[in-house]
Amino acid sequence: MNSLKKIVKYVKKNKWASILFEASIIVLVLVLFSWYQNRGTLAANGEPAPDFTLQSIAGETLQLSQLKGKKVLIYFFAPWCSICHMSGGNLNALRKARDKDELEILVIGLSYEFEAEIQDFANELELTMPVLYGNDQLMQDYKIKGFPTYFVIDEEGNVTHRSVGYSTEIGMRLRT
């Protein structure tokens, strides 16, 4: 107890120690919040990503397993999700920054009633990557609990990263 009192006294007297202490608390809160958001989703532990075959808004069929050999960012969204709308520009910026041969980006709509909702979302955000119609089975396979959720799949088809909630372009770049 005496040591704790000494630490508190030091932090109160030293401006830089106080700033470092406050920054540490903020980082701890952010880490705990991230952990809380990600709990229950498909683990990012190098396990194979569940395969899927989906239709795009352009009418093409896409199968995840056909992209083996490429790193893939799978971005799950709901058309009613305001955070998903805010992230769209980050996806376009990431697409411009990373060559398609280096990183494939798939945007998958879930939790929608009409296909037009997915098309409107893609048009509104002027998305420049494949936008696919997801389904309930895919939501279960990836254990999606909130939106947006994204996964990074490595060249061998394994999940290496996951995130729930808003992510900046820089955050996505660092994870891919």
Explain the overall architecture.
By secondary structure, the chain is an alpha/beta fold. It has two domains: 2-38, no CATH class; 53-175, Glutaredoxin (3-Layer(aba) Sandwich). It has six helices and seven strands; from the N terminus they run H-H-E-E-E-H-E-H-E-H-E-E-H. The chain has helices at 2-13, 15-38, 82-97, 115-125, 136-141, 169-175, and strands at 53-55, 61-63, 71-77, 103-109, 131-133, 149-153, 159-164. It has a five-stranded mixed β-sheet. Strand 3 (71-77), helix 3 and strand 4 form a beta-alpha-beta unit. The radius of gyration is 20 Å and the shape is elongated. The model has no long low-confidence stretch (mean pLDDT 85).
Distance between the termini: 45 Å
Number of strands: 7
What is the CATH top level name of the largest domain?
Alpha Beta
- The second-level CATH architecture of the largest domain is 3-Layer(aba) Sandwich
Give the domain tally: 2
Q: Which percent band covers the strand fraction?
A: 15-25%
How big is the Rg?
A: 20 Å
Low-confidence stretches: none
Strand line-up across the major sheet: 5-4-3-6-7
Report the biggest beta sheet as strand number plus sense, adding barrel if it closes.
Answer: 5 strands, mixed
CATH homologous superfamily name of the largest domain? Answer: Glutaredoxin
The computed structural class is alpha/beta
Helix content: 40-55%
Q: Would you list the SSEs in sequence order as H and E?
A: HHEEEHEHEHEEH
